[in-house]
Design brief:
Layout (H helix, E strand, L loop, with lengths): L7 H5 L9 E5 L5 E7 L5 E7 L2 E8 L2 E3 L9 E16 L7 E15 L6 E9 L2 E8 L8 E6 L2 E3 L7 E4 L13 E3 L6 E2 L3 E4 L5 E7 L7 E7 L2 E6 L8 E3 L3 E2 L2 E7 L2 H5 L3 H4 L15 E6 L1 H4 L15 H14 L3 E4 L28 H10 L3 E7 L4 H18 L3 E5 L7 E4 L5 E4 L4 H15 L4 E4 L15 E4 L7 H4 L8 H4 L34 H10 L4 E3 L4 H6 L1 H9 L4 E10 L3 E8 L5 E7 L4 E6 L8 E9 L12 E9 L3 E6 L4 E8 L2
Parallel strand pairs: 22-23, 22-30, 23-24, 24-25, 25-28, 28-29
Antiparallel strand pairs: 1-2, 2-3, 3-4, 5-10, 6-7, 7-8, 8-9, 9-20, 9-21, 10-19, 11-18, 12-13, 12-15, 14-17, 15-16, 16-21, 17-18, 26-27, 31-32, 32-33, 33-38, 34-37, 35-36, 35-38
């Protein structure tokens, strides 16, 4: 469905058009204003207002090159143009089916006012939920091939001690898998994006990027008080980006919201990506899965061969039986292929992606799965040896295609900066997980997989920037601390972790967090490692942490002990018609409601940090003409994650859109609801 674009002339009335030194473009609702102009010494710059108040002072724009004159100063505004757009597009799967793309656009042409002849454009799109801008460098003499050594984009904020930021460190060995810091701006050195900030006014901002293609990802470099610059991840030779004009950068994005919960409803990142490039993607299948995975993390089984090998024919059949009996669409099996023996973390060149261990009958198990209405989910761990993987990738996907495997989990375990890439002479060089090389690698994987109707779940990935719109077979990613840290992390994820993710990492896109652990204290109540949640909170994750593929991560025998919890996991969908954030504060609590795609039933998840609290949630999102049966999986009266994590109660009541639901949440507790529309 598409709505006719508005006449560009209407937008131009909102532009302070410019004389010759800049222009302003506003969001369709008029709240956000972005001004693009030149400052002292002809430095290109932009600034931002929200509801008439400046929230981002003038920040510099520009690029530097290894051999060509820089785009940094000595510029003038040579012209500008504007347009408006309003359309609706449909996601093949997602947190909402219909997406409205309504924005105003400004293109500003910069040309050199002094020095060598240079020109570039800055394209800005402003939505009601934020804005994005990118550099567009046209073909011009001397810029046929360029090595970008620095990008000069600044994000400026006032240094106010009341400003709070939620962030993880950038360019560190453990990639994106760090606990979030909650600090003032002054404590930040380098930070990965999304980074979320609460201004003293209560306005929330989240800094990220969209449509990362053929370019390096960036981290935020805190250079001076309140001034953050895009630090592009370098190649092994120090160059940041290797390209040629004409070229376009990814979008630099800032999501803007009056409160924390409104950030969650933003569609900015997806709207800044290109439409589906794959054509018919009816073969992409959201759903829930189980797997031979958690047993390795808690030490009951091993990836490598031997007496505790997890990926055996017999054990896989047990999981396939469980999946088939309970309606799960897939079974992930890790450790099935040759290469896991020894120090696999450092020996990625040992992996053989078409050779199973002798105790794993891949072909027979594929048939066994299909006979039970489920499928094997493939697994390609590379241990960061991308050269070895790319040499085998086509054959590996061919094998999976022949066996009816439709999803593959990829992994790139290895320290940041240790991706192994052979050059044209066979010399092995080391690259970053989020550099230009790996950005290109992930797209190569997607395209090879799509040719065989296979979807990808990336772990140890490059960060999500909304490319699932363009390549809908990119189902989900990791890119943050997941459930496995509760098995062996030092420390485990604290209770606030999953109350931070919806306002930070999840703004980028879906995450394969792997929820659904029901044996919460596998080392006992006083164990060093445990899941720091109540059982109700663990169920709430299926709604709160969106992914089109959700794992029921625990062992089959543990679900047999908790049939009430298993009931919700079986019932909750993974594909949604619409979603709405009901309430939340970063790191404290969150509540989200989602309506099942193609149905009238709603599901609601709510959770809190280590502090118990009661949430009052108006149900105005429901059909006002209908009644609903609310089935509530909630914390019992004595529930507490430290002492009584299994205290779970089931309550049923009738509700309407006029009601306000009162949900008491225990310490690190939660609630999971199904709201079934009554006839």
């Amino acid at each position: 469905m598409r709505l006719a674009p508005r006449c560009a002339g209407l937008l131009l009335t909102m532009l302070s058009a410019a004389a010759a030194q800049g222009a302003v473009v506003r969001s369709p609702d008029g709240r956000i204003g972005v001004t693009v102009d030149v400052g002292e010494r002809g430095v290109p710059q932009y600034s931002v207002t929200y509801r008439g108040v400046e929230i981002m002072p003038a920040g510099a724009l520009g690029l530097r090159f290894r051999t060509q004159p820089s785009f940094d100063r000595g510029f003038r505004v040579a012209g500008s143009s504007g347009s408006s757009h309003d359309s609706t597009w449909e996601q093949p799967w997602g947190e909402r089916r219909l997406m409205r793309d309504r924005h105003n656009e400004l293109v500003v042409q910069f040309a050199s006012a002094e020095g060598p002849t240079r020109r570039f454009d800055v394209r800005v799109r402003v939505f009601d939920d934020g804005f994005g801008f990118r550099y567009e460098v046209p073909a011009q003499p001397g810029y046929d091939a360029v090595d970008i050594t620095d990008e000069l984009t600044e994000f400026r904020l006032e240094e106010d001690p009341k400003t709070r930021a939620w962030w993880i460190p950038g360019r560190r060995w453990n990639r994106y898998e760090y606990l979030y810091n909650t600090t003032g701006l002054d404590a930040i050195q380098m930070a990965h994006t999304p980074m979320t900030v609460r201004l003293p006014s209560g306005v929330h901002l989240s800094f990220h990027e969209a449509a990362l293609v053929d370019y390096a990802a960036y981290v935020l470099d805190h250079r001076r008080p309140g001034i953050f610059r895009t630090s592009l991840t370098p190649w092994s030779d120090g160059i940041r980006v290797k390209t040629r004009a004409p070229f376009k950068t990814p979008w630099r994005t800032v999501q803007v919201a009056p409160n924390a919960a409104s950030l969650i409803d933003s569609t900015l990142i997806l709207n800044l990506n290109e439409p589906n490039a794959l054509g018919d993607v009816s073969w992409v299948e959201p759903g829930k899965y189980v797997g031979i995975w958690w047993a390795m993390h808690i030490g009951q089984a091993t990836w490598e061969s031997g007496p505790k090998h997890g990926a055996t024919t017999a054990e896989t059949k047990r999981y396939l039986d469980f999946a088939g009996a309970n309606g799960f669409k897939g079974v992930l099996v890790e450790g099935w292929n040759i290469g896991w023996d020894g120090d696999w973390f450092h020996n990625g060149g040992q992996f053989r992606f078409t050779e199973p261990y002798p105790d794993f009958d891949l072909k027979a198990l594929s048939r066994y799965a299909l006979d039970r209405g489920t499928r094997l989910i493939g697994h390609h761990e590379t241990s960061a040896d991308v050269g070895n993987y790319e040499a085998q990738m086509e054959a590996a996907f061919d094998l999976y295609e022949s066996l009816g495997v439709r999803q593959v989990k990829t992994g790139y375990v290895g320290d940041a900066g240790d991706i192994r890439r052979p050059d044209a002479n066979g010399v092995v060089l080391n690259e970053w997980h989020d550099g230009q090389f790996m950005v290109g690698h992930h797209l190569r994987v997607l395209k090879e997989a799509a040719q065989r109707k296979i979807s990808i779940n990336s772990h140890e990935p490059v960060k999500d920037t909304g490319l699932r719109r363009t390549y809908p077979n990119w189902l989900t990613r990791e890119g943050a601390r997941g459930q496995e840290y509760n098995a062996w992390g030092k420390p485990v994820n604290p209770p606030e972790h999953v109350a931070i993710l919806p306002f930070t990492r999840m703004l980028a896109g879906p995450m394969d967090y792997t929820p659904g652990i029901v044996d919460l204290v596998f080392e006992g109540l006083d164990g060093k490692h445990r899941v720091p949640h109540t059982l109700a909170k663990e169920l709430s994750l299926y709604v709160v942490l969106y992914s089109p593929v959700q794992m029921a991560a625990d062992l089959p025998e543990n679900y047999a002990k908790h049939p009430l919890a298993l009931r919700f996991i079986k019932e909750v969908p993974t594909d949604w018609e619409e979603s709405v954030a009901l309430a939340g504060e970063v790191g404290d609590f969150v509540a989200i409601a989602r309506r099942e795609r193609g149905a009238d039933d709603w599901y609601l998840g709510a959770l809190t940090d280590e502090n118990p609290r009661t949430l009052d949630l108006p149900l105005g999102f429901l059909d006002p003409q209908a009644r609903y049966e609310a089935t509530i999986w909630r914390d019992g009266p004595k529930a507490d994650w430290k002492t009584r994590p299994y205290d779970l109660e089931l309550e049923t009541r009738t509700v309407t859109a006029a009601d306000t639901l009162q949900l008491p949440l225990a310490a690190s507790g939660g609630a999971a609801l199904r709201l079934r529309k009554l006839p």
